């Protein structure tokens, strides 16, 4: 089979590797049918990744199950499933406590799409082996479009986690979103659907702002801190100066969620944070734990994640089209 391999900045290529097979009774093999780069993949392709090439890339897809081990009971060949980006067993203490991204059965940060915590392959591959199929794979609810939900491996459930629990705790909260990619737009969609009283989306890209406006958000190219302006701030730029704007815009006891990939160090306004009593979380996403709730919201018909899909390409176009700059391209094929 072919495995799409990141080889250099803005450069990927197909490489032939042995077909994965079910090697244990809890494993499965899947074939991606709709795959998309997440915001981390975009950083990797731009040359800002945490590990040097070459390696198999890709960690967001909806796939069709090809084969399963004898002990797999939750999915069957032919099923459409979401493949979470992080490797997890489902049985260890951390998995059972809702922290599958920190599974103790595998090395720290084990994932698809980058050789961190082992080499697990990438989801831009013709076939992928899933080590714990019942624990990891989540059936795609009937009626959901695989293209619209290609990001359900990571960015969609992450966006749900960034805003949904906060709106449950603070109905009608005011939400600030400072973003550069798909995560912030998904947050706008979810925040609107769950009753945020005000959403301000900040992004220098006018095309991104136009999408946010269809979700009912106010938009701006850039802002100065809005003193006591928002109950919740979501930052997904990877820039510490923008994270600082988010933190300085919170009400007392407000909450800041940082989903940016901060590869560069920087200083935060710690004294102001202390005086305001804000809370900040900057963390990897436990996507598998949030997927059922996030998919339920997607299936409710109150959200429209398909608006974020910028382009739809054929699977064979991956080597040429993936390195190009697109907001959220989806690569599809029949299996």
TrEMBL record:
Record bears the keyword Oxidoreductase: yes
SUPFAM superfamilies for the chain: GroES-like (SSF50129), NAD(P)-binding Rossmann-fold domains (SSF51735)
Protein name: Alcohol dehydrogenase
A Pfam cross-reference name: ADH_N
Cofactor names: Zn(2+)
Record-linked InterPro entries: ADH-like_N (IPR013154), GroES-like_sf (IPR011032), NAD(P)-bd_dom_sf (IPR036291)
Domain Alcohol dehydrogenase-like N-terminal intervals: 26-139
The species this protein was found in: Kibdelosporangium banguiense
Keywords: Metal-binding, Oxidoreductase, Zinc
Entry's Gene Ontology molecular function annotations: alcohol dehydrogenase (NAD+) activity
Highest taxon above the source species: Bacteria
Family matches, as PANTHER family: ALCOHOL DEHYDROGENASE (ZN-DEPENDENT)-RELATED (PTHR42813:SF7), ZINC-TYPE ALCOHOL DEHYDROGENASE-LIKE (PTHR42813)
Known EC number: 1.1.1.1
């Amino acid at each position: 089979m072919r495995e799409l391999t990141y080889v250099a900045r803005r450069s990927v290529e197909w490489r032939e590797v042995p077909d994965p097979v079910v090697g244990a009774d809890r494993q499965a093999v899947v074939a991606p049918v709709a795959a998309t780069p997440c915001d981390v993949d975009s950083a990797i392709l731009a040359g800002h990744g945490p590990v040097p090439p070459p390696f198999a890339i890709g960690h967001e897809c909806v796939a069709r199950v090809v084969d399963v081990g004898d002990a797999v009971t939750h999915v069957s060949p032919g099923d459409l499933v979401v493949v979470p980006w992080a490797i997890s067993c489902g049985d260890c203490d951390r998995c059972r406590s809702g922290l599958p991204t920190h599974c103790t059965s595998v090395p720290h940060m084990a994932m698809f799409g980058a050789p961190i915590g082992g080499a697990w392959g990438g989801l831009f591959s013709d076939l992928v082996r899933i080590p714990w199929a019942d624990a990891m794979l989540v059936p795609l609810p009937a009626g959901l479009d695989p293209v619209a939900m290609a990001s359900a491996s990571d960015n969609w459930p992450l966006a749900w986690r960034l805003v949904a629990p906060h709106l449950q705790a603070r109905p009608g909260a005011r939400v600030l979103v400072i973003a550069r990619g798909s995560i912030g737009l998904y947050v706008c969609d979810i925040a609107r659907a769950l009753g945020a009283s005000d959403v301000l989306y900040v992004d220098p890209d006018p095309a991104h702002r136009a999408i946010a406006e269809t979700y009912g958000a106010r938009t701006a190219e850039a802002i100065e801190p809005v003193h006591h302006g928002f109950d919740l701030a979501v930052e997904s730029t990877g820039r510490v100066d923008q994270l600082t704007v988010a933190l300085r815009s919170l009400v007392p006891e407000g909450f800041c969620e940082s989903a940016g990939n901060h590869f560069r160090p920087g200083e935060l306004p710690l004294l102001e944070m202390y005086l305001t009593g804000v809370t900040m979380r900057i963390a990897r996403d436990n996507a598998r734990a949030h997927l059922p709730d996030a998919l339920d919201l997607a299936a409710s018909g109150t959200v429209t994640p398909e608006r974020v899909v910028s382009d739809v390409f054929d699977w064979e176009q991956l080597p040429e089209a993936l390195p190009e700059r697109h907001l959220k391209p989806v690569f599809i094929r029949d299996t």
